[in-house]
Predict the 3D structure of the following.
Amino acid sequence: MATSISPFKFNTHDVPRRAGEMREFFLEIDDHEPLGFDVISIPDYEPIDIELRLESVAEGILATGRIQAEAIGECTRCLDPVEISIDESFQDLFLYEEDPRQKRSKKGSPANEELDDSDEVKTMEGEFIDLEPSVRDAIILNLPLNPLCDPDCPGLCPTCGVKWSELPDDHAHEVTDIRWSGLEGWKSPRN
Ligand SMILES: [Zn+2]
Ligand SMILES: [Zn+2]
């Protein structure tokens, strides 16, 4: 069985290798892995739409994308389903493989050691560019870590687990102090 090619790898064959040339594409990626966190993610059955503009520049291809997708998760307070419409963009430069500056930048001169991951140089793989890191970052960095069905969601009663919004205002449970409940039936030796 042949190894499957990532659906985020895009063939730039149709973009002329002349600085200033530009082409636009529309990608609908519907065979991706779930993208996000446990509490909220773009599930594998939700397509990721990408409006992609590729521009030829001297050293490679500049990719500008707009990503649209639906993220699905659950409210971290009441566990109701939550849907968030993703509309994010990215821009990344992919250098031609043979560009000698790529090798130089990887050697890490003292001035380059401070560079963090966001400044990582992206390189084409032949005629392909791998959009996955760009798309993943644009989506994950913009997903809420604590998704809520409503900013004012009151959550659940910690005792019975029913939503506060569905409980009467005077809802309460008999308070049993656990320090004393363990002593029920205990008889004082002094008696
Ligand atoms: Zn909620
Ligand atoms: Zn309750």
